[in-house]
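#dry-run=false #mode=assembly
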Amino acid sequence: MSATLTRPSLSFGPVLEQKLEGRVTVEERPGSDIATLVTDAATLKEAALFLRDDPAAAFDLFLDLASVDRSKLPGSLAPGKDGRFQANYILYSTKRNEHLRLRVNLPEKDPAVPSLTGVWPAANWFEREAWDLMGIRFEGHPNLQRLLTHNGFVGHALRKDYDKSQRWLCTEEDLLKTELAAKTDDPADMFETMTLNFGPSHPTTHGTLRIVMRVDGERIVAAESECGYLHRCFEKMSESHTWVQVIPYTDRLNYCSPMINGNGYALAVEKMLGIDVPPRAKAARTVLNEFSRIMDHLVCMAANLVDIGALTNFWYAFQPREEIYGLLEACCGARLTSSYARIGGLAKDVPDNFVEWSRSLLPGIRDRVADVDGLITKNKIAWNRLRGTGVVTKEQALAWGFTGPCLRASGVPYDVRKDKPYEMYGDVDFDVPIATDGDNFARYIVRMEEIRQSMRIIEQILTRFPKGPVNTDDYRVILPPKEMVYNEMEGLIYHFKLVFEGVKVPAGEIYSFTEGANGELGYSLVSDGSGFPYRVKVRPPCFPLFAAYENIIKGGMVSDAVATLGLLNIIAGELDR
Amino acid sequence: MKTPPPQPPLGPGMPSTSGADFLTTKLDVAVQWAQSNSLWPMPFGTACCAIEFMSVVSSHYDLARFGAEVVRFSPRQADLLIVAGTVVDKLAPVLKKIYDQMSEPKWVISMGVCASTGGFYRAYHVVQGIDEIVPVDVYVAGCPPTPENLIHGIMELQKRIQSGELARHRASKTFVPIRVGTDPDLSIPAYSDAVMAHMTGKKELPQIGETAESELSAKARGQAGEGHR
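#status=ok
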């Protein structure tokens, strides 16, 4: 299962080498992983600026910052004295369709790097998160405060020496103390603005988001958003579970479309193992992904339309959801938290009538979507509420690290399914809908069209749904069939090893990405060769969206902020993990 | 002269009226009957369970059939708090505040295992069951509970309200309400002493049975347990 290492040739390599000679090296990586550049803290900013601005590099999208504490890595993997921490910046170039990892190794004592918020504004919250959970300091960061945990928290939870069950008391004092709230009695404030607290328990936050606004009448002059009210320690919990046991946790990231998360995770581990799944599993995963995407978009629109006063759509949109739930329940036994993907296939085969059942759902979805379409798309009130509000330009969307429907609504046609096809997306014909206005209506209309495109994908796959097994025959990752366990020595050994030790993923690292319902869902996984993941870092698509939210709503009305929040579709589960 | 057909009783404790245009009952029973059939839930939806709660109130499962469909997002207008989803330490003061803002009589349903016990998040930032903070009347199991299961929980609560069991229990001397910190004026934090001591790392946890709050300390001990690995 060991992969050969290669040193990828980068198109901008020669220029980079000339400019930063000796201070940047291209690391040898297995072919399944993305290209990696290693630099040091002193050169980081220069390298980042080069990677952003050089036309041969043009990494315009900051995707993720995955920090690793390497102190418990065994044997030859153990870092030297000066390399306990690692900051991995994941970048993407929309022009060249290429991912890149920019890596900095940091010492145990006071790990600090210059902040990249000036290069990619999207880095802001990612750096705060890395400070909060890993204790890496970002010099020059405008607001380096805790983000996911509360201010009463002591220590950095994702460090390997932090006890995973050690809680700290949170009192009201420890919650967000914003500068905005403190400014209430500012004598220079001539317009008598007031502070408005919005959330974390508010019907339109659909979960647990908090925004503190400073309003002048109905207009928002400044805003500050906060997350972490649903930080349930997914990444820390993953480290004490086997690779397969992590799958139920992934379901609860984006709980509106759990299948997609599980698939993304399984795919990442499969890449590390270097195994492939049979066509039937690929087809089933793709179909269920698309059904999940439809459900996610339906919830997003239904809930958001309720927020802006269009209640009827909620009933329309939830009916097809219930019908899809029926299908999911037949596949895996659960409506919402499916735990259906497995490393190397699926938990079990799809039901016999899967193809007919799936096909029978499509007309219902089409009708209900047409109902919503008829009520909203040309509705004067909806236009007034959605058009021209929450505008995000193309440049802003890229700078803020948007992906998914929100990026496409601003005119950038990046869709992982199209640009880096996985599972069966390369074999089907579908369009990537884009809009150019970047406002709430654009985000609505892109989602509506994506539902139709998803149905197109499903229809195509159902016409040639493959027969055969759903699981790989590599019994190092999948339990062998019972006859084999009872009759053959090898079968018994495989069964024993898998049950007692779990899947043994070879030591290594990967960044694997799929198209979640809200954008690029990335998994940065590190394995130390034991049966447990060493580090699991999720790139949640919502995270940059919500980080940018305070900037989007500035200058708008409070009621528009509600519409914007709904159509960005922030899911607290994956936002806070 | 024809006698009118016997009428069914109007509710528990209410005699059959048998055609008469009046009924006799106790005030308590009438009030409990009314309360149980017009619950106004405030969904404190935080995570996955909130999505299933949405299914419960929407067209297919239609909570309106049980008289509990008037969903209010202001705690001041609600008498049933449905905590749907994981409550983390950062959210705990918020939940306590919302509970305190609801006026009596009020009931709490803990929907799903995360709200009930912390679920499989036995971790540094997750409240190990909302009964650390607020008293719970009905726990609904499941991750997330199916809509049928939540409806069952609501019906169970209705039954207990109607029978007067909850009201009697709270009025009785044996009822020990959840401790809300040491200072009665301090609405937050709401954890019991044992849990607070553990969380602030001040002292070793008491053994089970040592204190009146044995249940809570058992819960707190669980957090410090050796975990899964």
